[in-house]
Amino acid sequence: MALRGFEPLTPRLRVECSNQTELQSLDFEKNVWFKKLIGYNNIYKIICNLYLMEIRSKSSLLYWHPKINDLGIPSPKTEIIRLTNKEIKEYYRAEGDCFDLSRVGKEIGKVINDNFELPVFLRTDEFSNKHFWRKSCYLDNIDNLKRNLMEIISGSRFADFLGGLPIEALVVREFIPMDTKFHAFYGEMPVNPERRYFIKDGKVQCHHPYWIEDAVKNPSIENWREAAEDMNIETEDEVDILRGYSLIAASVIDGYWSVDFCKAKDGRWILIDMAEGEKSWHPSSCKYSNMPEEKPFEKPDFDSMIVRKED
Questions:
Q1: What is the pLDDT of residue 16?
Q2: Which one of 23, 190, 216, 254 is at 20 to 30 Å from 113 when CA atoms are compared?
Q3: Is the peptide bond before 119 cis (omega within 30 degrees of 0)?
Q4: Rounded CA gap, 303 and 267, in Å?
Q5: E strands along the chain, which residues?
Q6: Which helix (H) or strand (E) holds 242?
């Protein structure tokens, strides 16, 4: 549902020299050096061979999670494993299926063993590839750790036209059983009551159910539309709770944000994700939205962008 990767290519990127001694900003539209490269088919790879990309996004969990973690808003227990500069550089170079997971895989395995019980939820600081659920973010067997990490990382590379979403860390989160209504997509992803609240400059701007019918593929039950309609009903009590949580978050984080909540099996609403508001899906019917009118045939098929190999 996020629109990252479908925004216009920004002409100005911040890039950091690989020796990290000089930070400079290049105007790619005017820079003569860049113009000499435009004949190459893989410009992004050439740039990244020279520079360690430093496109740090506020949508990164590394930015927003520390700000909201101790506010009393229910959220999953979270452990962060930062990548080395070498691993990040290999990610942007996009050589092979994935960067070397030897170091980080061992560290994640230890983090899981010391702090969690399976299953756990895996993601990068920006992305989880949740539609491929059992082969990506949902880990219930430690023997599948490398496979799932590779699925998440390869999905992150395909999710943005600039050569991949930014990445600085891999994240292990507590898996909280949710109030699942049915499963969908190709990884049997659970579809749960979810809400997206938009906050701006300390106030709640608007709120919406997250799962619209046009977004659902391969549902597990025949009456999924009725189930989706029922789970998208926003009650007064729910709105009071989530508005309160959103205002708490808005009190510590400036600017325009989307805040995503999911209903747990025990009835609690859990804050599961945040992102910059301008980069978040927003129903076109909302007066605050700048999204084009939603038409099913115009929606990009994200799943088809990734070629699947049978195990």
A1: 33
A2: 190
A3: yes
A4: 31
A5: 12-17, 23-27, 51-53, 78-82, 120-124, 138-139, 169-174, 182-184, 189-191, 194-200, 203-209, 256-263, 269-276
A6: helix 236-250
Tokens representing 230?
């029922």
Query: What is the mean pLDDT for each group of 10 consecutive residues in the chain (311 residues)?
Result: 34 32 37 44 45 63 97 98 92 72 95 98 97 97 97 87 81 98 95 98 97 91 96 97 98 97 98 96 92 60 45 45
74 contacts 263 by C-beta, under 8 angstroms: no
The two three-digit tokens of residue 159, written as one number: 């999710």
Q: What residue type is assigned to position 129 of the chain?
A: N
Kindly report the CATH class assigned to 182-302: alpha beta
pLDDT of residue 294: 65
Every domain of the chain and the residues it spans: 77-174, 182-302
44: number of Cβ within 10 Å: 16
Supply 67's token pair: 């700000």
By CB atoms closer than 10 A (0-12, 13-18, 19+), residue 156 is buried
- The pLDDT of residue 11 is 29
Q: What is the pLDDT of residue 257?
A: 98
Residue 104 tokens, joined? 């980080």
Query: What pTM value is reported for the model?
Result: 0.78
